[in-house]
Specification:
Structural class: alpha+beta
Largest sheet: 4 strands, mixed
Shape: globular
Number of strands: 4
Strand content: 25-35%
Protein name: DUF2249 domain-containing protein
Pfam families: DUF2249 (PF10006)
Strand order of the largest sheet: 1-2-4-3
Number of domains: 1
CATH topology: Rossmann fold
Helix content: 25-40%
């Protein structure tokens, strides 16, 4: 088995093409919020989601890696990997450790 096939097996797909446009961002945030450091997912979309990527940078900062696998009109594939747990004060979301 080649390296690409092994990676495909490790990353669960999130195919945004099957999610209503108005729900896509929130659905992806919810899916990413469930991942632990070292885990990831493969995002598949019908266009390059530049506004979404800006929101992800704002929300997750340096704790999320974003790697394009395919960037063609009609099909964009991006691998997201959680690099580390949230640190209080990073991004716009509370890490849950506030009292």
């Amino acid at each position: 088995m080649n390296a690409i096939s092994e990676l495909d097996l490790q990353l669960p797909p999130f195919d945004a093409r099957g999610v209503g446009r108005r729900f896509r961002h929130d659905a992806l945030f919810g899916a990413l919020d469930t991942l632990q450091p070292g885990e990831g997912m493969r995002f598949i979309n019908d266009h390059d989601p530049l506004p979404l990527l800006a929101q992800l940078r704002e929300r997750y900062g340096e704790q999320l890696a974003v790697d394009y696998v395919q960037r063609q009109p009609g099909e964009v594939v991006i691998d997201f990997t959680v690099l580390r747990a949230a640190v209080h004060g990073e991004g716009s979301e509370c890490c849950g450790g506030c009292s």
